[in-house]
Design a protein that fits this description.
By secondary structure, this protein is an alpha+beta fold. Strands 1-3-2 form a 3-stranded antiparallel β-sheet. Helix content is 49%, strand content 14%. The radius of gyration is 12 Å and the shape is globular. Helix 1 crosses helix 2. A hairpin with a 2-residue loop joins strand 2 and strand 3.
């Protein structure tokens, strides 16, 4: 994931979905299944750069094989 263009520290769920090239509903499923670390501020769900990198690293082999992440 190349996040150097914006240099942002925190992303919303829709922004994270766009970065990962997955649908918003799929990203919300990932959040609900606690597959990615999140921060909650009130009702807002925030995902950090580090959490995104960790998620990508953890799932790289799965994505290479084309297997759906559950």
């Amino acid at each position: 994931v190349n996040m150097t263009t914006e240099n942002k520290q925190f992303y919303s769920v829709p922004e994270t979905a766009e970065l990962l090239c997955i649908s918003k509903s799929k990203m919300w499923k990932v959040v609900r299944n606690q597959e990615i670390k999140i921060m909650k501020i009130g009702h807002r769900v925030i995902i950090t750069n580090d959490a995104i990198r960790e998620f990508v690293d953890k799932n790289q082999d799965v994505w290479k094989k084309g297997i759906e992440v559950e």
